[in-house]
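Something for you to look into today, if you have time. Just paste the record in under my message, thanks.
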Amino acid sequence: MLSNSSEILDNFKSLHQPVPSWLLITVLTFGLISNCLSIFGFRQDRLRKKSIFIYLRFLSFSQIFLPLIDLVEFVLIYTFNLSIYKHFPSQLLTYFIFTITDISNFMIIPVSIDRTLYLKWKNLSIKFCNPKIAYGIIITIVGTMLFLNSHILLFFRGENSLSTLTKMEKIYIKFFHEYFFWTDVFIYWILPLCITLICSFIMIKHLFLNKVENRNEKCVVVNRRIRDSYENSQKRITLIILMLNFLFYILVSPHVLIRIAQRFNVTSFIASKNAYAIACLFYHAYYTIQFLIYVFFYKKFKEPFKQLFR
């Protein structure tokens, strides 16, 4: 445990030393801006009527806060030699970070399930892939994560005041570091990983072996050119979801696996420290690249930006 603020700052800089500070700040800044732009891109009325884009818009919204917090932390530490934990209640900030991380990572589950239902099970997609259900699921996820992490607000008192902790608070700190760690890993990595892998296999099979049906009965496609355009659009949406899942696997997983390895003392301190810094960079990049995927793979996403600069 860390005894004072200078030790916290030294530990933070040591952990991230292998990666240049300017690179981390650049990635975080672009991540913050790109997620704001993603929200703007998904504001179109026709996209807001589709559940998949409601989920993607909220995903972008939830991913604004972590880059913002990390960016403030990096700037304070590397510019002013200050820690954000010194100016905000540790339990409130810790609660916010854990909850936002869980919400953000968990949101790829309804995104993947929504797309899988749309492609594979027509009757279920008509029933569940609509804006009302989407907003209800989002509210349920947010409420659940707020509740599951509420113990942090009630009992967590930070690591820089061990001498002032009560016996009950010391027991909680042990629970937080030794047991809650695995619960949190299950919520924000293992469960999303397993569900999205299953959905991804179904989407890949459908993408290469099946044609996408036009399920809008009001729009009877008689023109082959229109039909092909529609099928291409649906394939691009599926490809976007697959790429988001793939990003989660390759950019978030190393960070989690290294944390697990540290728990079991699998790696040496030097190797673990270097790997952790690189994994953190990957993790931050996860919040950055998604906007680029939307821009390059979905033409309708770019329309608000074109109108803005006309």
Remarks:
- Residues 5-308 form a domain with the Rhopdopsin 7-helix transmembrane proteins fold (CATH 1.20.1070.10).
- The chain has one domain: 5-308.
